[in-house]
Design a protein that fits this description.
By secondary structure, the protein is of the alpha/beta class. The protein contains 5 helices and 7 strands, in the order βαβαββαβββαα. The structure holds inosinic acid (IMP).
Amino acid sequence: MEIVFATNNLHKLEEISALLGKKYQLLGLKDLHIEEEIPEDHNTLEENASQKAWYIFNLTGRNCFADDTGLEVDTLKGAPGVYSARYSRIGYPTFPEMEPAEGNIRKLLLEMEDARERSARFRTVISLVLSGMEYQFEGVIEGVITQRPSGAKGFGYDPIFTPAGYKITFAEMDLSLKNQISHRARAVKLLVDFLNGM
Ligand code: IMP
């Protein structure tokens, strides 16, 4: 059965493709020549994942899923959350001159300068639309925001996130380990178990 992942990220496509059984052939947006921007203009990960999955389902009539991820910091009442990707481009302060990931880290550390309570989590929500029915899967990893960046692997907020039970940041961790324990890995496992169990 063909199933569409509403993403242009080849790395994500390969990762999930490898986990899905032979029963499924995974297609990305590029495979369907969809080049338009997929709307994601809601205020929660759940709504955005759902919006993207239904958008592609309605456009193509194909079974599909979409994901959305955010970093939720408790002392910042869940920010940057759904705005994680563009945190340093919105509100105050902004760091337009920096690469997004660098600006995001700078802003987050600034906002947390005096914070002693540094608990946070990465959360991924996947919405699957299958024959017009929607199913959601959530993957979470708890951790803390470090005082300063450390490590060069990974991407995004990895240099300032230490997962619970570890003494190193995601950016200091082998990618293979991160990919076993991450928020995304956990959400994907629930999706894959569901699809492979059908
Ligand atoms: P997306 O929904 O997967 O595009 O993720 C939204 C944003 O969350 C990204 O642009 C990153 O800033 C951040 N993010 C998502 N996953 C990770 C991760 O595994 N490590 C660090 N940052 C991440």
